[in-house]
TrEMBL record, chain A:
GO terms for biological process: iron-sulfur cluster assembly. PANTHER family: PROTEIN ABCI7, CHLOROPLASTIC. Belongs to the iron-sulfur cluster assembly SufBD family. This is Iron-regulated ABC transporter permease protein SufD.
Automatic annotation (TrEMBL), chain B:
Residues 2-246 form the ABC transporter domain. Keywords: ATP-binding, Nucleotide-binding. Belongs to the ABC transporter superfamily. Ycf16 family. InterPro entries: AAA+_ATPase (IPR003593), ABC_transporter-like_ATP-bd (IPR003439), ABC_transporter-like_CS (IPR017871), FeS-cluster_ATPase_SufC (IPR010230), P-loop_NTPase (IPR027417). Pfam families: ABC_tran. GO terms for molecular function: ATP binding; ATP hydrolysis activity. The keyword Acetylation does not apply. This is Fe-S cluster assembly ATP-binding protein. The keyword Nucleotide-binding applies.
């Protein structure tokens, strides 16, 4: 039996027990399955997947679950300590008890996809799948075939949401590995403003497969910050694509922060479709052991006077591998655009590896574009400056490595995330740096 | 406390210090003045252990220890601290981490435990107030985006927190406006202590109006050409360096 067939059999079994559903959903499911069956899982001979081996997924045998049980104590420890509107999924299954959707502000609608489909499936059908088509990747096709749950967030025009909206995905240590194919759909109305946090975490022994597709639509003047905090257990497998569509003068800021997961592949696509639209891509990954993280980003400058700025940083230790592929596409007639891209990496071990590739395709002539990639070295002058204060060389290098991540975290507007990532990075840096005890939470310092 | 004997130092093949002698006792404040290119900054850089300086002969001892045998961080841990003319910006490293790591390194070298967090915060906040610096400085990256005056105040703040045995200040007064000068001078004066030595390298007499030196040296062409009391600083201000050059040539 082929790898694909294992998944298709699971789909068939699932479909057999599904209740009635709108015909358009059934049709999309079938189209997704057909597409997946036709193209199959990607292999390393495909340019987009050259450095990322997904056989741990394709050869896996993952169950689907309907069970959202999760230890409340563990959940509390994993949940970001933020006063927020919260949707929680356990292995892809909506957990009402771990969600907090009381007192939604006016103009804000947040609900699980299953509920949104039940309430008014036609309202969801138009947006869902509009940005992430089944031909984007075999995993998008697979997700479409399995679509049943996820987060639907809608902001009415002019709505400014003060509290962050957290979409939390918890991975459970199951007897047998589980898979889920969630969707995130965000429709930000004109001049609305919000912060959305997609957070992945779980029980240490978990080894599940998440295949996520997110679609984010920003209407004219909408401002959206989208944090993806990847803290999944080191056995988890994670594939996701995040598609943003931007209207005139909209601003999309993405923070893609990866600490966890055995295999993490993120595709980010932004379509800047009207003048004044702006995309900011910030990324940080810190991986060690045999972790593998692959970030593929794409910015499409489809209109004149659109702006993008991208900065990705990676720290790799042990035998970890990283991939950065950043593509900027400037369409003909997209004049006076600005697109900047930078990727910097630090390798803490001889056996760690990073493959970085910028791609610029520019078909307009009046543009400002730049890109740079470094893999590297710490600032020796800074090492010396720290040593003159009595800090030994290893610790000086540790501090500067932490600082390398710190430069990304300085941009983070959600303090709880900045602090959490900093503590995690400090805690996971090699012992030789001797940073234990140096970095403390604000509460430990009495600074709250 | 600090003894420099017949120090010869070469930088990229050319000799900068040509037999420099200096003795500084605990409790004293010394100023080293001199024209550009005399070797003032070289002296403090060599004492602090900066790379690129070759000591061809002579010795530096600090409290009986051979400084030239010590690593850069060992010198600082032993209480030799240099305040830089051009403090380095260290993006991403928060001031609070630098201060805490440096203080604990020093304590560890003395065989003491790490400082408890609340005690550390109390200490740092007192010294911040003394330097008229906002507590938000602690969360900012070291010197990044600081004005010239802020950088210099930050150097003194580090001294106040680390309480070195020997404070060396390389042109700490350059780039300071009057107000910043006063704050920096107050910081230096509060470091005066019978157990501590202070070595101020400066081009101008300006700072010495606020921080009164016990001994003033004139460094010319790699050697101490003249040593006197604070009056010497005023003479230099009034008459320039040429007469010292002529005197020493005679």
């Amino acid at each position: 039996m082929s790898d694909e067939q294992t998944f298709l059999d699971k789909l068939q079994a699932r479909n057999a027990v599904r209740g009635d559903e709108p015909t358009w959903i059934t049709a999309r499911r079938q189209a997704g399955a057909a597409r997946f069956e036709a193209v199959g899982f990607p292999h390393k001979r495909v340019e987009d997947w050259k450095y990322t081996d997904i056989r741990s997924i394709s050869r896996g045998d993952f169950e689907l679950t309907d069970n959202a049980e999760f230890s409340p104590a563990t959940a509390a420890a994993l949940t970001l300590p933020i006063d927020a509107l919260r949707l929680t999924f356990v292995d892809g299954v909506f957990s009402r008890s771990l969600s907090d959707l009381n007192s939604l502000p006016e103009g804000v609608s947040i609900e699980p996809l299953s509920q949104a489909l039940e309430a008014n499936h036609e309202a969801v059908g138009g947006a869902l799948g509009r940005l992430a088509g089944i031909d984007f990747s075999p995993f998008t096709a697979l997700n479409t075939a399995f679509t049943e749950e996820g987060a639907v967030i809608r902001l009415a025009a002019g709505t400014v949401v003060d509290k962050p909206i957290i979409v939390q995905f918890l991975s459970r240590a199951n007897d047998r590995p589980v898979m889920s194919h969630p969707r995130v759909l965000v429709e930000a109305g004109g001049r609305s403003e919000a912060t959305v946090i997609e957070h992945h975490a779980g029980e240490a022994e978990a080894a599940n497969f998440t295949n996520l597709v997110s679609e984010i639509m920003l209407d004219r003047g909408a401002i959206l910050s989208y944090y993806k905090l990847q803290e999944a257990p080191v056995g988890d497998l994670h594939i996701s694509s995040l598609h943003a569509e931007q209207g005139r003068d909209s601003r999309f800021t993405s923070f893609n922060l990866t600490l966890g997961g055995a295999l993490v592949r993120n595709d980010l696509v932004a379509d800047l479709n009207a003048e004044g639209a702006e995309t900011q891509y910030n990324g940080l990954f810190f991986v060690r052991g045999r972790q593998h993280v692959d970030n593929h980003t794409l910015v499409n400058h489809n209109a004149p006077r659109t702006y993008s700025n991208e900065s990705y940083k990676g720290i790799l230790d042990d035998r970890a591998r990283g991939v950065f592929n950043g593509k900027v596409m400037v369409k003909r007639d997209s004049q006076q655009i600005e697109a900047y891209q930078n990727n910097a990496n630090l390798l803490l071990s001889d056996r760690a590896e990073i493959d970085t590739k910028p791609e610029l395709e520019i078909y307009a002539d009046d543009v400002k574009c730049s890109h740079g990639a470094t893999t590297g070295q710490l600032d020796e002058e800074a090492v010396y400056a720290l040593r003159t204060r009595g800090i030994d060389e290893q610790m000086a290098r540790g501090l500067l490595t932490l600082a390398f991540a710190g430069e990304v975290m300085e941009q983070v507007q959600v303090d709880a995330i900045a602090e959490r990532v900093e503590l995690a990075v400090a805690g996971k840096l090699p012992e030789r740096f001797n940073l234990a005890g140096l970095v403390e939470s604000a509460s430990a310092l009495g600074e709250e | 406390m600090l003894e420099v004997k017949d120090l010869h130092v070469t930088v990229e093949g050319s000799e900068i210090l040509k037999g420099l002698n200096l003795t500084l006792k605990a409790g004293e404040v010394h100023a080293i003045m001199g024209p550009n290119g005399a070797g003032k900054s070289t002296l403090s850089a060599v004492i602090a252990g900066k790379e690129g300086y070759e000591v061809t002969s002579g010795s530096i001892t600090f409290k009986g220890r051979d400084v030239l045998e010590m690593d850069v961080e060992e010198r600082a841990q032993a209480g030799l601290l240099l305040g830089f003319q051009y403090p380095v910006e260290i993006p991403g490293v928060k001031n609070i981490y630098l201060l805490k790591a440096a203080l604990n390194a020093q304590r560890k070298a003395r065989g003491e435990d790490e400082i408890p967090a609340p005690e550390f915060m109390k200490l740092v906040k007192e010294q911040l107030a003394a330097m008229k610096m906002d507590p938000s400085f602690l969360q900012r990256a070291v010197n990044e985006g600081f004005s010239g005056g802020e950088k210099k105040r930050n150097e003194i703040l580090q001294m106040l927190v680390l309480q070195p045995k020997l404070v060396m200040l390389d042109e700490i007064d350059s780039g300071l406006d009057i107000d910043a000068m006063r704050v920096v001078a107050q910081g230096i004066n509060s470091l005066r202590d019978p157990e501590r030595g202070i070595l101020i390298v400066t081009h101008y007499q300006r700072l010495l109006e606020h921080v009164e030196p016990d001994v003033v040296h004139v460094l010319v062409d790699g050697r101490i050409a003249k040593t006197g009391d604070k009056q010497l600083a005023y003479d230099l201000e009034a008459r320039g360096y040429d007469w010292v050059l002529e005197e020493s040539a005679a």
